[in-house]
Specification:
- It is a single chain.
- This protein is an all-alpha fold.
- The chain has one domain.
- 65% of the residues lie in helices and 0% in strands.
- The protein is built from 6 helices and no strands.
- α1 runs parallel beside α3.
- The radius of gyration is 14 Å and the shape is globular.
Length: 133
């Protein structure tokens, strides 16, 4: 999944859990689960920049609804993709660390538009969950 989806799902889980430590654990677990769902990842830097901008903008708009645990959930849910960034800029080589990034587990792939719709649906549902928390 992309940044926006991971961040909003992590924030929504943190909002409902309420405890920062539990939000971190749940955010990391959500990253694994979301990567297993068939989806379409951004293919170039423009797609990544757009995605991160949308996700950051969504969190900014929702900031008044977010508690501390929401931020920890969002951070933990997006953190595993830092190794993807590190690889793309040449800071990491060799085997990936996160289970859905290293080939040991299926990383769901689905071409657009269905793969994008999966992410938009999850992101919108998460934003709604944050608003209702």
């Amino acid at each position: 999944m992309n940044f926006t989806t991971h961040a909003l799902v992590g924030a929504a889980l943190g909002s409902h859990i309420g405890l920062p430590a539990a939000a971190v654990a749940t955010g990391l677990t959500s990253h694994l689960i979301l990567d297993l769902i068939p989806h379409h990842d951004a293919e170039d830097w423009r797609g990544v920049l757009l995605d991160v901008s949308v996700g950051a903008g969504a969190l900014y708009i929702l900031r008044s609804c977010l508690i501390t645990a929401s931020w920890w959930g969002a951070l933990a849910a997006t953190a595993p993709d830092l190794e993807v960034v590190a690889r793309h800029v040449g800071l990491r080589r060799g085997r990936w660390g996160f289970p859905t990034h290293n080939g040991d587990h299926l990383h769901g792939r689905w071409p657009p538009p269905a793969g994008v719709l999966t992410q938009v649906t999850l992101a919108m549902a998460s934003a709604l969950a944050i608003l209702l928390a």
